[in-house]
TrEMBL record:
Pfam families: Asp_DH_C (PF01958), NAD_binding_3 (PF03447)
GO molecular function (one): aspartate dehydrogenase [NAD(P)+] activity
Function: Specifically catalyzes the NAD or NADP-dependent dehydrogenation of L-aspartate to iminoaspartate.
Residues annotated as catalytic: 223
Residue numbers binding NAD(+): 127, 193
Catalytic reaction list: L-aspartate + NADP(+) + H2O = oxaloacetate + NH4(+) + NADPH + H(+); L-aspartate + NAD(+) + H2O = oxaloacetate + NH4(+) + NADH + H(+)
Name of the featured protein: L-aspartate dehydrogenase
Species annotation: Ruixingdingia sedimenti
Domain Aspartate/homoserine dehydrogenase NAD-binding: 12-123
EC number(s) given by UniProt: 1.4.1.21
Misc note: The iminoaspartate product is unstable in aqueous solution and can decompose to oxaloacetate and ammonia.
Signal peptide start and end residues: none
Keyword Oxidoreductase: yes
Recorded name of the encoding gene: nadX
Length: 270
């Protein structure tokens, strides 16, 4: 491998981390090396571990791998420490657990560290599409952004949805939450990270409206985004296939991270 290779470290070996690693192994993008994966128990042997990737036990072990890009797919609690460690190690930082940015001070802190280090915090579109159009449209001014997240009841199990409705008894779609992106991302960190992505790309966490729906007829995880503004009107509808090992997370989230990684090393960026 040459000195110009992009050395990537994944933080988290769950549904998304494993899918990203498998896609990189399949696609073998030029100039991309999966240098390491951070896990909580580095001693455990894990089937399917990527060839040549080091096990990283904690943020202190990051700099030794000389990463160019650290991709977080572990959970909200991992974002601050791994983001700081990535930027201190001279890497860009791409967090998937964007619900962490309901704490606006955390994003400001990482942004300041990125500026000081000459690096970037890169936010992939996650489970969503149309973020490029939304972010472009926001430059002229948006009047309204509404994002509806529809998942089967099983995908809401173990979340605050259980306090708001009887998931097992549903026979028709139920909108169990309608509020701001700030509230959605704060209260549903496993299911509404994209709410914060929509908000950051558009009109912010306080003005972006989010509806969360449990639908017993849903085959996958749907995202419906509608925005109006001086640019015109946009409507995006996605029916995402869930990841096999975590029904809460969409396949598209892993694909968006693979795209981000490949683009950091590509000659032509799309
Ligand atoms: N941006 C987006 O659109 C989306 C973001 N997500 C978020 O991405 C994250 C990962 O999702 P999944 O892979 O589906 O979750 P998962 O629960 O399958 O995997 C997370 C893994 O990270 C590990 N982990 C947790 N804290 C860690 C730490 N400090 N260091 C090392 N490993 C740690 C866990 O043990 C687990 O193996 C979650 O926060 C999820 O909510 C999920 C879907 C969409
Ligand atoms: O993967 C999805 O469809 C969305 C999701 O879980 C999240 O934003 O946290």
């Amino acid at each position: 491998m040459s000195g110009s290779d992009l050395r990537v470290v994944l933080v988290g070996w769950g549904a998304i981390g494993q899918r990203v690693a498998a896609l990189l192994a399949e696609r073998r993008p030029p100039r991309v090396v999966l240098a390491g994966v951070a896990v909580r128990d580095a001693g455990v042997v894990r089937p399917g571990w990527p060839a040549g990737a080091a096990r990283v036990a904690g943020p202190d072990g990051l700099a030794a791998l000389a990463p160019g890009l650290v991709v977080e797919c572990a959970g909200r609690a991992a974002v601050m420490d791994w983001g700081r460690a990535a930027l201190a190690a001279g890497a860009d930082f791409a967090p998937a657990s964007t619900s962490a940015f309901t704490d606006g001070a955390l994003l400001a802190d990482l942004a300041a560290r990125a500026t000081a280090a000459g690096r970037q915090v890169l936010i992939a579109p996650g489970a969503l599409g149309g973020i490029d159009a939304l972010a472009a449209a926001a430059r002229l001014g948006l009047a309204e952004v509404r994002h509806e997240i529809v998942k089967p009841p099983a995908a809401w199990a173990g979340t605050a949805a259980e306090k708001l409705c009887d998931l097992a008894a549903l026979t028709a779609p139920l909108t169990f939450f309608d509020g701001t992106a700030a509230e959605a991302a704060r209260d549903f960190p496993q299911n509404a990270n994209v709410a914060m992505i929509t908000a950051l790309a558009g009109i912010g966490p306080a003005r972006t409206r989010i509806a969360l729906v449990a639908d017993p007829g849903a085959a996958g995880n749907a995202h419906r985004l509608r925005a109006t503004g001086d640019f015109g009107t946009m409507t995006i509808a996605l029916e995402n296939r869930p990841l096999a090992t975590n029904p809460k997370s969409s396949e598209l989230t892993a694909l968006a991270l693979v795209r981000l990684i490949e683009n950091r090393a590509a000659a032509v960026v799309l």
